[in-house]
Specification:
mainly alpha, 8 helices, 82% helix, rod-shaped
Length: 204
């Protein structure tokens, strides 16, 4: 997975701005928050795929794997692909709804502007606790509401995934029953053939 490949322009712009302002090259080359977020998401997906490895998948469905190894691999590949796509779409939706790109840019700008500030920011009331509370509480309440909505969506998604898994298990069980039925039918035919051969071999 590419880590923050689409934010190369932002990194180049940050480096150019730092060079024009005579800032520290190490700070100018630091990745933006959007890049860090993208890298974290990519790392999470990599670890998720690693945790759900094909070996572990096969261990869960060993009997089916022995009967249909190629079909087992195909089911696993489709599952992983759909899982990654679904997670990326959900994360992108959260980013769009929360305007995370804009918030990250604003935070980067605030940090950049605060580098040369020697005095603490002015607070209307003069009491840090009250100012922090009046600023943070509305944001935290809004964020909590957003997280609750996302949680409900995730719970619904998990429910659908669980149903899909159960349907997959039922499908595997049905395939196993069909295989067993074909095997029993083949054994019955073989038995009849042996009995028929023995009949012809009996002395006249």
């Amino acid at each position: 997975m590419a880590a923050a490949g689409g934010d190369g322009g932002a990194a180049a712009a940050a480096e150019r701005d730092g060079a024009e302002g005579g800032g520290d090259p190490a700070l100018a080359a630091a990745p933006s928050r959007a890049q860090v977020f993208t890298t974290v998401v990519d790392t999470f997906l990599e670890k998720l795929v690693a945790a759900g490895s094909y070996h572990r998948f096969v261990n869960c469905y060993r009997c089916f794997y022995k009967l249909q190894p190629e079909l087992t691999r195909s089911i696993y590949d489709q599952f992983i692909s759909q899982l990654q796509t679904s997670i990326k779409e959900e994360i992108q939706e959260v980013k769009n709804e929360g305007n995370l790109e804009g918030l990250f840019s604003s935070l980067d700008k605030i940090v950049e502007e605060a580098k040369d500030r020697e005095e603490p920011a002015w607070r209307p009331s003069g009491i840090p606790e009250q100012d922090i509370r009046s600023t943070m509480v509305p944001y935290l309440l809004k964020h909590r509401s957003h997280l609750r909505r996302v949680l409900r969506e995730k719970e619904e998604e998990n429910r659908k995934v669980a149903e899909s898994v159960l349907m997959g298990r039922d499908r595997i069980a049905e395939l196993q029953r069909l295989i067993e039925a074909h095997q029993q039918a083949w054994q019955a035919i073989s038995k009849e053939q042996r009995e028929l051969i023995m009949t012809f071999q009996e002395p006249q």
